[in-house]
């Protein structure tokens, strides 16, 4: 989902409801009966959700997967999974998923600057046409590198 806009309200609503469900599980072994604890099956929907919505390589999904890997302690991880989901909702609501990494933004800005220079050089009839052509190639290279960095 990263970079593709704010998810529809149903997706955010599901995450918020899942936070509430996970918070109802107990993490206190001494005070509560065994059936009040989360199981790996209780944590799996949140982990799958984060992998789909945030991207499988996002820190949200990686952290959620880490909670699943330590499945023997699933009973103690329900609130941690709720925290991850809640922070993802805040992240999305703040518009952070649309923010490209610094390297990508810098490369796009460099490509735009180069193309501005190309336009100036093309307007000047005294400039040999090879100069703007070379800068156009450099701008294209920067933009392609930005696309590669964005999708890496």
What does this structure look like?
The protein has 152 residues and is mostly helical. The chain folds into two domains: 9-98; 102-151. 68% of the residues lie in helices and 0% in strands. The protein is built from six helices and no strands. It has helices at residues 9-23, 40-53, 59-69, 74-93, 102-123, 130-151. Helix 1 packs antiparallel against helix 4, helix 2 runs antiparallel to helix 3 and helix 5 (102-123) packs antiparallel against helix 6 (130-151). The longest helix is centred in the last third of the chain and has 22 residues, at 102-123. It is rod-shaped. The relative contact order is 0.13.
Features:
152 residues; mainly alpha; 6 helices; 68% helix
Question: What's this entry about, in short?
Answer:
This protein is mostly helical and 152 residues long.
Question: What is the secondary structure topology, with strand pairs?
Answer:
Layout: H1 9-23, H2 40-53, H3 59-69, H4 74-93, H5 102-123, H6 130-151
Helix pairs in contact: 1-4, 2-3, 2-4, 3-4, 5-6
Task: Please tally the β strands and state the result.
Answer: 0
* Secondary structural class: mainly alpha
User: What shape does the CA trace take?
Assistant: rod-shaped
Terminal CA distance = 14 Å
Order of secondary-structure elements: HHHHHH
The main β sheet shows up as: none
Oligomer: single chain
């Amino acid at each position: 989902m990263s970079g593709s806009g704010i998810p529809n309200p149903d997706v955010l609503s599901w995450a918020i409801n899942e936070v509430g469900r996970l918070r109802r599980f107990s993490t206190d072994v001494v005070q509560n009966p065994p059936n009040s604890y989360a199981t790996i099956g209780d944590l799996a929907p949140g982990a799958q959700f984060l992998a789909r919505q945030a991207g499988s390589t996002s820190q949200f999904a990686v952290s959620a997967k880490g909670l699943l890997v330590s499945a023997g302690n699933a009973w103690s991880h329900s609130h941690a999974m709720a925290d991850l989901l809640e922070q993802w909702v805040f992240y999305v609501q703040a518009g952070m998923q649309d923010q490209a990494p610094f390297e990508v933004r810098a490369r796009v800005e460099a490509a735009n600057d180069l193309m501005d220079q190309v336009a100036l050089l093309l307007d000047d009839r005294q400039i040999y046409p090879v100069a703007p052509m070379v800068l156009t190639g450099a701008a294209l290279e920067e933009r392609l590198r930005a696309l590669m960095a964005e999708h890496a």
